[in-house]
Amino acid sequence: MLEIVFNELSAAEMSQMNTLEQLELLDQFVVQKSDLEHLSDEKFGLIERDGKKLYRFRTRDWRLYFEVRDGLVIVHRVLHRGTFSDFLFRSKMTVAEDEELAKSKHFWKLIDEGRNAKHLEK
After folding, report:
1. Where are the domains of the chain?
2. How many Å separate Cα 63 from the centre of its chain?
3. 20 to 30 Å CA-CA from 110: which of 31, 63, 100, 117?
4. How far apart are CA 21 and CA 85, in angstroms?
């Protein structure tokens, strides 16, 4: 299992959930190297742009967008599937979700905000 690190933005997004939701999400969000090598489980997806890899973890109501760097899972954003931002990403999708996200400048702006935020330990 890889160590998970939240940045200030993703931690703030997590803090908007009630405690039970947070615990359930953290219980489900377990990342093994094998999960990312095969991506056979619908829970995980891959979004690529300019040679950079960004992973998506999908659970019932939440989407976590993260990268793996130096053996750490760095969570950049935690979005509820019903949030306006998440809706914008998905509203015009005609092909696979992750492929469309890779094309969205708005999505990458959100991710870059997360990349530039201070990291917090899980």
Report:
1. 3-121
2. 5
3. 31
4. 20
36-73 pLDDT, tens digit per residue, is 888 766 789 888 888 888 899 988 889 999 999 988 99
Q: Are 76 and 115 in contact (CB under 8 A)?
A: yes
- Cβ neighbours, 10 Å, residue 66: 27
Distance CA 122, CA 103 (A): 30
**Biggest alpha carbon distance in the chain?**
38
pTM of the predicted model, to two decimals?
0.73
- Residue 80 identity (one-letter amino acid): H
Q: Which fold has domain 3-121?
A: YaeB-like fold (3.30.2310)
| 48 CB-contact burial (10 Å; exposed 0-12 / middle 13-18 / buried 19+) | exposed
Nearest of 18, 29, 22, 34 to residue 56 by alpha carbon: 29
Contact 54, 44 (CB under 8 A): no
Rounded to whole angstroms, how far apart are CA atoms 68 and 110? 17
